[in-house]
Each structure stands twice: as structure tokens, then as C-alpha cells.
Amino acid sequence: MGDDSSIGFGRLDDAGSAEDKFRRELVRIRKSASFRVGVHIITAVERPWRLILLPFSLPWLIFSIGLERLGKKAIPEFEQPRFDADKNRKSVIMFPTNGVGFGHFTRLLSIARRIKKLDEDIEVIFFTTMPTLHLLKREGIPAYHLPGRKKFNDMPAKTWNKIVEENIANVFAVHKPSMFIFDGAFPYRGMLNSIQGRDEIKKVWLRRGTFKKGSTKIPVDSINHFDYIITPKDSLELEEHDMEFTSAVVKCDPILYLDEIELRPKEDLRNRLGIPHDAIVCYLQLGAGQINDIESDISICLSELERHENVYVVLGESMLGSRLPSIGGRVRVLTDYPNSMDFNAFDFTIMAAGYNSYHEAIRFSVPTISIPNMNTGMDDQLARVEVAEEAGAMIVLREVSKRRVQAVIERILDESVRDSMIKASEKLHRPNGANQMAKWIIDEI
After folding, report:
1. In terms of C-beta density within 10 A (0-12 exposed, 13-18 middle, 19 or more buried), how is residue 57 classed?
2. What's the rounded mean pLDDT across residues 193-206?
3. Could you say which of 2, 97, 287, 313 has the lowest number of CB atoms within 10 Å?
4. Which of 346, 352, 298 is nearest to 325 (CA)?
């Protein structure tokens, strides 16, 4: 059998891998509160003039450590481990976390599949907490999977982060990447420990939104672990960040999984789901509420749509959520990835105003009734869709009631209204940021 080194891969039993582990452990110890307090006391004992100030300096140190834990103060810089920079491969490690949906995963996969098309010599590897690994297999992308901490009963965060750190370090040791890209709302401490001091790897954080003082609990030292912060644009211009960090900011247009030429023909979905070609088809995906709850938004929309005999409804079902019940009649269920692949088949949609849903509807010019989720924390869905509403590309429903839903459905069933919305959407089209970022990454490695 040939040696792994002949094809450029590293080995887990290399001396460098063991040294890497010991160095990371040393840095972790030096950053610990107990070590820093101990060093502070010993230094005071060795220098008597500091001993006099100890009743004041020690509480201040403990207070500072508390601020660091809360993300209000940066952790002091310590000497970081240094690694051999002469053994990089044309390899990119991507780490998307999983939230309530596919946002993080989809953005990185959108870029990854384009990298592979532009330069097949570049190796793309996923390390992810997402369970949908079959989607990566479909694209020919190998993956390492680690379940999120909440999948384990009562596992301490410290234990899980240690697993993350060791697993990523092993992936680095084997694949020797030139770039590491993280997409998630909050950087895990175990991940940060694994990338610190690796100057031979370009570290990138792909993150929607900006960093505002007082609006994020992310410590500045966490941000500074990354060489670049990629921020995809939204429908409205976001305010510039006002936190001080060393990472360079790279902007791109909204990142979409598909380009127009990849959408399936209109007849494809209708043939598969047994929908007449002359029917009006509505795609309904609100993401919240139960169908059997007659007061939920999704139930109200369904009942009003069913009043129109020539309207068929396709319910979007997430691969991550619970299964939708069988409804029958003129209602079909679609479980695919991405469901936007069938947007040519829909005459209009009723959707929430999440980042991906919004930009897919605009980019593929699908007339949309948008019901923004007003309880999403930092994601201002209403502000996002108001841009399209002002342009005439979407109908925004701020409050849901049978009367309001009935009125907007009656309006969008008018073909002239839908034609006008399609034309308005075309004016809001932007290039696909996935193509831009794939080219940028290829140039950087």
C-alpha cells in the first residue's frame, strides 16, 4: 500500500499532530481563569510592592475575566502555537452550523458547488453539525459530521467544545487546507481553539449582518481569530459595523444556491404531483404554526386558498422539521432541496420573509405574498420585504386574519397583478453572490 504522503495528505500519527495538541492545550491553560489568577498572586508575592496592591488588583482581574466571559471585553493575547506553513494543499474546509433552517448550510454549499465547477483540482471538505449529509453526497462533497451539543443529553459545553476542537484539528492534520470557512451566528470556542495560531490557513467567517456595539455578545477576540469577514448584502443597505476588529470585511451580493438556468421546467413538478397544467399553483411555506390549528397563519391561508376551485397548493416541507400531515384534495406536499428548484411551476407564493426565501423569490421573479415573522430577534424581516413592497414586487401582510388573507389572495389571483409584480422583481435582480465568492476563494488559495 502507498504512503498517504505520496498524494499530499497528512497523517494523524505525525509528530507534528501530537505537538499541535500539546500547544493548543498549553494556550488553553494560559487563558484559563485559575491560571491567570494564580500567576497574578505569585507575581505579587515575588514583587512585594505589588503585594500591597493585591486587595485591589485581584478583584479587578476577576471582574475583567467576568467581562471577557460575557463578551464585553477582549481576552488578552497569548503566545499562539505556530505551524508548518509549507505543506498546504489546494483544500478548503467549510464549517456550517445548523440553526432552525438551512441558511448557514445552503450558503456554503452554494459556494462549494461553484468552486468545484470552476476548479476541479480544489478539494472541498465539509465539517458540519447538519444531519443532511446526503445533500453533500449528491454534489460529490465529502463530509465529517458532529451532532450539535443539544443532541446529547446534558453534555456540558466544555466537553462538546473539546470534541469540536480535536475533530477539526484532526481534519486539518489530514487535509492540510489553505482556507477554513465558518458560517454560523456564534463561533464555538472549540473551533476557535483549533484555528488559533494557524497562519498558514486563511480563516474566513461568512456572516449575515453587521457587528454593532451592544447588539452582539460575540467577543472581539473571537472575531479577530478570522482574517476575513464575508457579509452578503440584503435588500436594504446595512449600517457599517462600529466595533473595532482586525479582520478584513468582504462584501458580496446575496448568495443563492441556484441560478435561473438550473430551475426545472414548469411542467415537471405538475406532472410529478398530478397537478393540471392549466391550474393556478400556489407555493405555501410559512415555517411556523401547525396545520391542525385553525387559528395559525398556515391554516388560515390554506382555508382561503381552498375556496378557489382552480387553485392548487404545494406545501413546502422542511427536511429538518416534523412531517406534515396528509391533507389531500388540491393540496400537495413538496420535500426537496432546494424547493426553489421548482419555482417555475408556481404562479405565486405565500412565504415568510427569511433571507433565503426573500432573495429566491426576487431573483426568480415569483409573485409573492410575504408574511414576515416579527419575532426573529436580530433579523428584521419586515424591513427586508418593505423594499420589495415599495417596488411593487411583493404584497406584505403585516397582520394575519381571514379577511386580510382573503383580500390579498383575491388580488394576486389577478393575472395582470402578477405580471406587474414579475416586472417589478426583475428591477431588483442582483448577481449571485455565490459565483462572486467562489471566484474570490479560488484567487485567495
Report:
1. middle
2. 91
3. 2
4. 298
**Grid cell in block for residue 376:** 426573529
Q: How far apart are CA 248 and CA 379, in angstroms?
A: 23
pLDDT given for residue 72 in this prediction: 64
Domains detected in the chain: 26-79 (no CATH), 91-254+432-444 (3.40.50.2000), 264-427 (3.40.50.2000)
pTM value is: 0.82
Measured distance CA(158)–CA(23) in Å, rounded: 18
* Residue 389, number of CB atoms within 10 A of its CB: 15
Residue 210: C-alpha distances to residues 93, 218, 239, 249, 362 (Å): 24, 12, 7, 10, 23
The DSSP result for 95-154, as a single string, is EE---SSSHHHHHHHHHHHHHHHH-TTSEEEEEES-S-HHHHHHTT--EEE---GGGSTT
Determine the Cα angle at 261 with ends 382 and 365, to 5°: 30
256 dihedral zone (left: phi>0; alpha: psi -120 to 50; beta): beta
Q: Are 209 and 130 in contact (CB under 8 A)?
A: no
Residues 139-154: tens digit of each pLDDT: 999 999 999 998 899 9
Distance, CA of 75 to CA of 193 (rounded, Å): 13
Which region among 38-42, 370-374, 383-387 has the lowest average model confidence (pLDDT)? 38-42
> What pLDDT shows up at residue 274?
95
Q: What mean pLDDT do residues 62-81 have?
A: 68
Cα of 180 vs its chain's centroid, Å: 15
Q: Please answer whether residues 232 and 433 qualify as being in contact, where contact means their C-beta atoms are separated by less than 8 angstroms.
A: yes
List, in sequence order, the alpha helices (H) in 232-275. 266-273
Q: Cβ distance 179 to 441 under 8 Å?
A: yes
Q: How many helices (H) and strands (E) in the chain?
A: 15, 13
How far is Cα 434 from Cα 207, in angstroms, rounded to an integer? 13
Q: Could you tell me the pLDDT band of residue 258, with boundaries at 50, 70 and 90?
A: very high
Closest of 197, 192, 221 to residue 74, by C-alpha: 221
Mean pLDDT, rounded, of the chain: 86
Contacts for 285 with CB less than 8 Å, ≥ 6 apart: 315, 316, 339, 349, 350, 351, 352, 357
14 near 172, Cβ under 8 Å? no
Structure confidence at residue 41 (pLDDT): 86
Assess whether the previous peptide bond of 276 is cis (omega < 30° from 0). no
User: Would the pLDDT of 213 be above 90?
Assistant: no
Q: How far apart are CA 220 and CA 73, in angstroms?
A: 7
